[in-house]
Amino acid sequence: MAARREPVSRRDRPAKDPLSRAVVVAAAVRVMRAEGLERVTMRRLAGELDTGPASLYVYVDNMAELHGAVLDELLAELDFSGTDLVELLSRYTQVLFEYPSLARSVLTLRPSGANYLRLIDAVLGLLDASGVPVSRAAWGVDLLLQHATATAAEHGTRSESGLHDASVQEAALVAMDADRYPHVAGVGDLLWSGSGEQRLRWGFAVLIAGIAATAVP
Amino acid sequence: MAARREPVSRRDRPAKDPLSRAVVVAAAVRVMRAEGLERVTMRRLAGELDTGPASLYVYVDNMAELHGAVLDELLAELDFSGTDLVELLSRYTQVLFEYPSLARSVLTLRPSGANYLRLIDAVLGLLDASGVPVSRAAWGVDLLLQHATATAAEHGTRSESGLHDASVQEAALVAMDADRYPHVAGVGDLLWSGSGEQRLRWGFAVLIAGIAATAVP
DNA sequence: ACCTGAACACCGTTCAAGT
DNA sequence: ACCTGAACACCGTTCAAGT
């Protein structure tokens, strides 16, 4: 056991971190890394910071806004150097894959943090560099990031919750009913083929090709 | 006031609907239509059906699974006749737009109901009819439905929660900092231009063009 | 003016005990 | 065997009342 400086009562504990937005967000990131986003509750954070849940509302608007701040914190570590577009998007997706619940939350958030803007800027830059007209790039960046986020939200939750092994098997059997679902039966196993990684990257390729080829109205 | 047949006590009320999966799902749909998915709680449904929340678990596995059943119920009304691909996908999106929280839930669900399979089958058929190779169609259907669902989840929640008018304005100003975000500043208002409908349809067009052009690995 | 204790109004899910 | 009352273990957010 490490020596404690002094045993102090809760009442006169000395100068712990004073509360601030940064301290609240840092605590949220810490708890999420250690125990998952589900454990990041206002009450838990308050406990962590020796105060009551109401006090947190001085620094964050609500849970959704806090999730946005947590995302931006995570994106600070994103490496932008020496990447092509698919690689950068894959790195972004990898970050979210580790926290699928955060991805789910982000999907309904329109993030606006500094690091998210930096990511948008980099994606725009790479689209521009490959000759995509700015109008298509401007709308396309949304599509690309949405694909990344939705895939992370979808994937992660499915491996989290233990559903779908028996039930996917069962659905697959029903789907093969050639009378009711002729086209599904026709494509067969292809519907569920490929790894998550392969399908993610194919999705990016599809989007990039489509964005380059499709004029905005 | 309509005449009541007879005043009955709770104890000996006559033959109300006996509980069944269909009755539980129907109650969920009814409450969602009237008051939104947020009000569809196990306790509320139980109250509606004169029982306790525990009884519902005889008929549904959990909330997520119930949401899947509700989606499939909604899709029963989807009109498949005389549509091209973009039109069909738009109709599906319209259904989800009315219940953004359901869309959010569906995103992490891999729906497997009969009506969802019917939709997948129709999309596969239309892709096939337009000459897309089956391997690309098989992976592409996921991309198309994910775009629809994610857009509904995103859009709806944003107009539900009153965020983002002042805060989007503010983010837009920050983003125009040409030193920090040169490419964002370069594209300017294009980033936020267009109606939801326009961007949704453009997204479908992008995906369809990309799917047709991109081989699976 | 700034902060927070306590309350408001709820949740999903489980399980022992009934019938 | 089937069903359920009651409990377990929590939530986010608000606001009156303190300092």
UniProtKB/TrEMBL annotation, chains A, B:
InterPro entries under this entry?
Answer: Homeodomain-like_sf (IPR009057), HTH_TetR (IPR001647), Repressor_TetR_C (IPR004111), Tet_transcr_reg_TetR-rel_C_sf (IPR036271)
Where the record puts its DNA-binding region(s)? 41-60
Q: Which domain of life is it from?
A: Bacteria
User: Could you give a single Gene Ontology term from the biological process aspect?
Assistant: negative regulation of DNA-templated transcription
> Domain named HTH tetR-type: which ranges?
18-78
* Protein name (record): TetR family transcriptional regulator
Which one Pfam family would you cite for this protein?
TetR_N
One GO molecular-function entry: DNA binding
List the transmembrane segments. none
Q: Which organism is it from?
A: Winogradskya consettensis
The alphabetized UniProt keywords are: DNA-binding, Transcription, Transcription regulation
- The answer, when asked if Glycoprotein is one of the entry's keywords, is no
Gene3D superfamilies noted in UniProt: Tetracycline Repressor, domain 2
